[in-house]
Design a protein that fits this description.
Blueprint lengths: L17 H5 L31 E9 L4 E6 L6 E6 L4 H9 L2 H12 L12 E3 L5 E6 L4 E6 L5 E6 L5 E6 L5 E6 L4 E6 L5 E6 L4 E7 L4 E6 L21 E5 L5 E5 L1 H7 L9 E6 L5 E6 L4 E6 L4 E7 L22 E3 L5 E6 L4 E6 L9 E2 L3 E6 L5 E6 L4 E6 L5 E6 L4 E10 L9
Antiparallel strand pairs: 1-2, 1-28, 2-3, 4-5, 5-6, 6-7, 8-9, 9-10, 10-11, 12-13, 13-14, 14-15, 16-17, 17-18, 18-19, 20-21, 21-22, 22-23, 24-25, 25-26, 26-27
Amino acid sequence: MTRSTARRPRRRRPFGAAVLVAAGLTAGALPVVPGPAGASEPPERVREAASEELKEVFFVGNNWEGTADIINSRGDYARIGRINMIPDKKERLREIYLNPVKLAFFLGIRLGPGEGHDQYVDDMYTTKDGGSVVASRPSFADVVSIDVRTGKINWRFPVSGFRSDHMAVSPDGTQVAVSSSTSNTVHVLDMATGKEAGSFKTGDKPHENVYTDGGKYLWNMAIGEVNTDLDAPWQDFTKGDRRITIADAKTLEVKKIIDMRERLDAFGRKDLSDALRPVAFTPDESKMYFQVSFFNGFVEYDVHKDEITRVKTLPKNPDTSDERTTYVNDSRHHGMSMSPRGDKLCIAGTMDDYVTVVNRETLQEGPLVTASKPYWATVSGDGKHCVVSESGTDQVTAIDFATGRKVTSIPVGDHPQRVRLGHVPTDWTGPITG
């Protein structure tokens, strides 16, 4: 396969990313967690049916632009509106530029994970009533709630440390968990008020968050340092403490820590990084699939047996460099989702410029659908399609789970990353302006 000619040129992570290190960005016995009680929907869905007054949509976070495009969650995926996610930009920038420490981290984010850009919107979830969207804003180190009607901020929560990242919403839609990258902390906030319910400590650079067992447990995956050029295998020790932390979602007491390094070694894959990127659970939560840094493929983990059972290597794009320092934030492949029936996995081959649907039983991949720097994968509202963000060409693409073929692409804003299901009022077309 060949690369898209419409894509942005990739940037090698500049040595200026050392600002992150200089500013301090780098930073036993396991109790048994009971197994899942039964089948569950994909973790990003709020398990509560929308009322007749609400419309199910996708929120697409345009990271470098600071906007969220709202598109239909199925069918034509047409865009129906856009929200400015940084209405307080002037105020935040003034605050940052008047504080030397905050400014150092702000510029470090731009030079490191931002690839030369500010990261204005990462993750997003809507409230149960569809009246607000809650979003993490990495460069502003906060979480905000924005009224979808007026575009005004309802509340703002500054995270500990200097960068906010991935979030997860509780199954009942009342709480949101957010990773604070530089303080190794997960904060859990009230969706309606922004008040903190509590927090717990994690490994270095907490990343993905997932609620399991009907909302009883909260899993956090720490990816360690990904913003330096110390990417050779022998330099792996510089990446920090990478582990899964599982907390009781009610008390936020840590119940279990999983060191995937031990599991990978036991499976005979000492060559693979233990930095877990996106993950996907089977509907019954008995298996977890995850991507790791630098690897063009994924790993299957048996939750009950606490062991790795299979590793799948996916095709390499012949045009993809073997120089690991060229991989964006150490991501070879970043983005995966599972079909509602649990029979298919959708994989975003970020640096290999493709998306493919994999049969979960055989691990055989389907057609390699050309995509420019695909960075996230989720499931359409009707469960028929895998929906990916193409950050290289600023579009969202739907791929049929049944055939593995591309259905359509929709243009969005600058550098789309997270795509999340949510709800807005049925008559919503965008915030009131003027």
